[in-house]
Amino acid sequence: xxxITKPYLPRFSEPYFVPSERKGASKKDGSWRVRYxxxxxxxxxxxxxxxxxxxxAAERERQLLVEGRWTPPAERxxxxxxxxxxxxxxxxxxxxxxxDGKRRQSKTSTVQAxxxxxxxxxxxxxGAPDVxxxxxxxxxxxxxxxxxxxxxxxxxRFDTPPTNRKAYVYLRAAFSEAVERDIVQSNPVxxxxxxxxxxxxxxxxxxxxxxxAILAEMPERYKLITVLFxxxxxxxxxxxxxxxxxxxxxxxxxxxxxxxxxxxxxxRVTDDDGHVYMKEMETPKTKAGWRDVPIFTEFNxxxxxxxxxxxxxxxDYLTTTETxxxxxxxxxxxxxxxxxxxxxxxxxxxxxxGRNWLITHxxxxxxxxxxxxxxxxxxxxxxxxxxxxxxxxxRPRDVLNRVSGKEFGGSGDVIxxxxxxx
Length: 422
Known about the structure:
Helices cover about 45% and strands about 10% of the residues. The chain has about 425 residues and is mainly α. β2 and β3 form a beta hairpin.
């Protein structure tokens, strides 16, 4: 019903007593009632236990009618409940509700990554009350100033740009949905400084000799998987998730050409009881994730030795622990780190560095970013060129030598660029 916008002169009855119809009630039991006609002509009643209460309620209705602010009591009660709900719905409660919605739409590992950032920077912040304050603010009262205060506190307290920005992105997304659901009128979450992605950490380009030295120190059971993530560009989760049936010989028994068929991955997740396990994901990390990757023939002996000694049925995992369980990613990283130490490698390498190695060497051989992306399962070519692809220290000199020799017919020798601060 529309609000009455012009004054209305109402007529109210005198308060009258209504005896109780309850069985066994005395003559004094009952309530007081005042009747009136609203602007639409509908007869309405105000009923209270005491006469004074009925008269006070009638006076409030009279005032609303005279001032043109009257709406039906049921509408006012609904609006009051809605207002109270808005007051009770804090930023912290709403962000967690938004996260629950994501659980039905996204992979478990993805949602748990959201949850870590949200809890550590918004809803369950430890030792930083200026950061934690945001979660207590009612959504309806959140201002852009509040968001800026939170962001300033986050960036001051926590030197973790990627996590900080993730929390901001999720907060903004949650409030975009709050606007759609009419919880708030507009989205107050906008911080210009938080819009830009933080510069990624410089990824180290491994030397081939270092990777080979690490491979030599790996236990036999884990040599093949080391080949896959160190030289063939597989993500660790992809390599751990491979089944025996997903490595095939496209050549002959005497001249094998091994190929891995990547059709998913495994990711570390936590169940409702707090148990951590590796969950099989049937969908790839990116659209380009499903792919076939040939294995360098130099590693044929390692492939064959692994298949002969460490694999079971076609549907079993290609790499397992001694008990036949899927290998945890954390365990694999520790095994790799111990092999790196035994090999005497000083570089700060991880299983993920193999992607840098393969991308860079493919580029040096003339592969285009699209061709590299097909092998690496990476559809974002910008990520390939800006994040992964590296320039070897001696590469610019080699290229200039070839240009000089081809165009000027000389020896092709050029001065060391490093001497000039290049």
